[in-house]
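Before relying on records like the one below, remember that each one covers exactly one chain. Contacts with other chains, cofactors or solvent are not represented anywhere in the record.
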Amino acid sequence: MSDRSIDQSRLVVISGPSGSGKTTVCNRLIEDPDIVMSVSATTRFPRPGEKDGVNYYFLSPDEFQRWIAQGRFLEHAEYNGDLYGTPRGQLEEKLDAGATVLLEIDVQGARQLRENCPNALYIFLDAPNRDEGVRRLTGRNTETPEQVRRRLEAARRELEQTDLFDHKVVNDDLDETVGRIRDLIREAERAGKST
């Protein structure tokens, strides 16, 4: 595994609480052929329709621990009882190919990444209010009530940590939110911080 530094200039980190619309926003952003997603690894079970190597690398807890020991993650964290991490190798490959790379990670992972990649662009995405976040989260129908409760508790803690982000964007209108984040990426590019 390479131990060279990661080129931070085209790294865009999007984080925020469950129900903020991170996945939907990222899916819209990658409609731009110059923007690609980093594929995270996780120990959680796939949701319906998710594919290994496309949505996540689905690993057993033992495999995940081996990857940690081998230094294969740029960052890793536990969230809602499962492990998540950003594989270093695939991220390096995408950056080397000249793409702007989106990382959709939780706040704990973003804090860890900020220490390793201080010059990436960090964006905190939030729902317009807690009721909307809860509606989005429960509307997925992919988690048990206990899992939803834990996610909402994690969201409360995440809202207290927005200081590590360069920008906070409230996702109250999808088109406006995507446009705002595209503008932030372009502004960072002009400032020499991304792309």
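The CA atoms of residues 123 and 167 lie 5 Å apart.
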